[in-house]
Amino acid sequence: MMKQFRKVQDSWLGKGVLILTALSFVSLFGISGYINEKANNRPIIEVDDIVITQSEITNSFNQKMQSLQNVFGDTLDINETIRQNILAEIVQQELMGAIIRKTAQDNNIYISDALVRKIIFSQPEFMDANGRFSKEKLLRLLRAANLSEQAYIDALRQDMAALHLVKTPAMAVNVSKVMLPYLAALENQRKVFKYILINPADLKTDRKISQEELEQYYQDFAPQFVEPEARDVSFIVLSVDDAARKFTPTEEEIAAYYQENISNFVIPESRNILQMVFDTQEKADKAAARLKAGEDFYKVAQEEAGQNKADTELGYASKDMLIADMSEPVFALKVGEFVGPVKSEMGWHIMKVTGIKPMQETKLEAARPQIVEALKKDRAYEYAYENSTMIEDQIGAGASLDDIAKSNDTSIYKISGLKEDGSYKSAPKQFAKLIKSNDFVDTAFSYNPNEVSQVFETDDGFVVLKVNAIHDAHPQELDEVRPTIVKMWENDEKAAIAQEIIKDVLHDLESGDNIDEVARRFSLKLNTSKPIKRGENFDNLTTLQMSELFKEKLNNPKVLDLDGEQMIVVATKVINDKHKLTSEEEEVLLRKAQFALSQDATTQMINSFGKDYNIKVDYKSLGLAD
């Protein structure tokens, strides 16, 4: 399996691993984790002996939700469909990651601690004003990102294994310019689609559920009509934000922070750079001579170095972003000047400066609010951790929740009827998000009545809870669930009617009837799209669904499921435009095709690796259909 990858083993790190964003730090450096992980150990993904648990999937989902919340704030509205799509994507990513880890293990691909250190120490985000690795900056970033160290080291090693096994070979896929006429023909092709939408919810049933059917549903779906176990819980929250408000940093601390993190407040001078690279000095000298004669840089780069426009443009770069041999000569140039050939370990370089952005500095006074906030948060976390240790000692000594609340001058809050899905009968509104969190629910269902839990960390702060009472699971009476059963039966009836309509429509279309005639025959509304190109869509169809439609022949019906609504669609017309692509459009088209092939190659390689293993995925435990 691995022969095709051996030749990249010595070069893969240089080709790309250092562009990985360092998000966290690892226990290689002796720092303890920051996240108190309460595992729900139900296996969701199994690839031979590698297991991904439900808690790991949930944590990834929660991190994704937090990232979206940070971007969109209060405007974020996640409905059930979006939630399931995000969850399905996370499951797919975790499955691919597990296959890569297993393949790396079986083929002795080992990512050493020394290599991990090298990557982390090279990240500019972790460096102080003197360009040295700063442990303090790392700790601050960890706290801000709320990440666990071990999770990061695992992800980093997985990324490096993926780069070695999959990404580097996939990136080597090339699309020849010979394919351009065929790609252009496909790009210019447009299709017109006619389609019928059938929504079961809009259909009507011609009868009511019978008593016999009602009782039968009650028996058949008995597990769904069980009132689950519920718990009454009391809890306290030690807020990090509250602790931060009690702390005021000194002027000396503010000044020291500014100096220590001066790189965060100074944007160095940067230059817009064009570059061409040669493997021999002879070729480089020839190109330099043409530039000195006044020829265009792009033209020379294309003809002498075989570079296109994108390969030639480095964009704006600061001095520390350039290789050491080029930084001083380039930053001595004026706009319009070039330097080279200059030799480096990568070859012979010629670089030209086309624009200069001067250094920008944020003075201490302007940065003061940001620094004060950062220092407050740092001190608050230190206080919170110290305080949580003291509380652990209190709990060990047998203190009650009332005792702990009094000693920390905080209130006790109560929840009634908390269930394992995070729902409840009553609870403080300000803690709705906390109560639904995985850590809170897991903890509430891990203790017996009147037991005080250990301290656990959440987004709201440090939490301690006590279970006041447990209400055992019990079957609900038929009368209690009657409305639910009626709704289930109606949905099933409507779905059956919809399937009959779809079956009849497809039969007529496959028999050669025109979709216009079929729509009139069944009194169904017929919709017509505008002429659609590949890559475009209509009626909010996904890219994958559009790709499937473009593969179908004219008048060949296709049924698509649109989140419960069914679409019967046929392509009725093909329009072949004669538009001649510009060189820029051709370049974009080649890149798109190469990207698509690389993605397909990546998927095929991972699928090929996966065939060697016993793979199980429990979608149902996550509320996803198998």
Describe this entry's structure for a reader.
The chain has 626 residues and is α+β, with helices and mostly antiparallel strands. Helices cover 48% and strands 18% of the residues. It has 24 helices and 20 strands. The strands form six sheets. Strands 3, 16, 17, 18 and 19 form a five-stranded antiparallel beta sheet that branches. A four-stranded antiparallel beta sheet has the order 12-5-14-13.
The proportion of residues in beta strands is 15-25%
Q: Whole-Å distance between the termini?
A: 30 Å
The rounded Rg comes to 31 Å
Mean pLDDT over the full residue set = 82
Low-confidence stretches: 1-39
How much helix, percentage-wise, in residues? 40-55%
What's the overall geometry? Answer: flat
By oligomeric state, this entry counts as single chain
Main beta-sheet annotation: 5 strands, antiparallel
Number of helices: 24
Which secondary-structure class do the elements indicate? alpha+beta
Could you give the count of β-strands?
Answer: 20
